[in-house]
Amino acid sequence: MKKLSKTLVMGIVILSIAAITQFVWTDIAAACGYNSGQSGGSGYVPQRRDSNGLLARKSAVSQEQARDLVSGYVKKLNPDLEIGKVTDNGGFYEVEVVDAGNEIVQLLGVDKRSGRLILLN
Questions:
Q1: What is the pLDDT of residues 70-115, one digit of tens each?
Q2: Could you give phi then psi for residue 56, rounded to 5 degrees?
Q3: What backbone torsions phi and psi does residue 42 show, to the nearest 5 degrees?
Q4: Helix or strand or coil: residue 108?
Q5: Is the distance from CB of 86 to CB of 19 less than 8 angstroms?
Q6: Selection from 109, 49, 24 nearest residue 73 by Cα
Q7: Residue 86 to residue 88: CA distance in whole angstroms
Q8: I want to staple 97 with a disulfide (CB 3.0 to 4.6 A). Which of 11, 32, 103, 106 is the partner?
Q9: In the 8-state DSSP scheme, what is residue 110?
Q10: CATH class of 46-121
Q11: How far is Cα 20 from Cα 16, in angstroms, rounded to an integer?
């Protein structure tokens, strides 16, 4: 009898772990936009893509476009923050995110080729 109950308990534990794992994987996939057909979390991080998904045909991101990308991203997360100075840094633009007192809160980079955001500090 003891062996049967131990086997039953072990089966319940395994099924519970499988159920929890399935729930977590589904939740992670939804957070990344996988279930909606937009992999990579495109609703969260701005991405430059045409209908074919190709970046090679697109021109480089301009300094003004970099400002607009970061501004849209920051306004989604915290409408109280503003965009400060935008600096050309070779392969990417360095964009300052500032608060109401004009203090730098965060430095973000915008890749010139892809338009993706890079956390700098």
A1: 999 999 989 999 999 999 988 899 999 999 999 999 999 999 988 8
A2: -60, -30
A3: -65, -20
A4: strand
A5: no
A6: 109
A7: 7
A8: 106
A9: E
A10: alpha beta
A11: 6
CA-based nearest residue to 69, from 90, 91, 104, 95: 95
Q: In what order do the strands lie in the sheet with 82-88?
A: 82-88, 92-98, 104-111, 117-119
Can you tell me the distance from the alpha carbon of 93 to that of 114, in angstroms, rounded to the nearest whole number? 12
CA distance 81 to 106: 10
CB-neighbour burial class of residue 61 (10 A; exposed 0-12, middle 13-18, buried 19+): buried
- What's the CA gap between 78 and 90, in Å, rounded? 28
DSSP 8-state assignment for residue 102: -
Domain residue ranges in the chain:
1-44, 46-121
Question: Rounded to an integer, what distance in angstroms lies between the CA atom of residue 112 and that of residue 59?
Answer: 9
30-57 pLDDT, tens digit each: 555 444 554 444 455 555 555 565 555 5
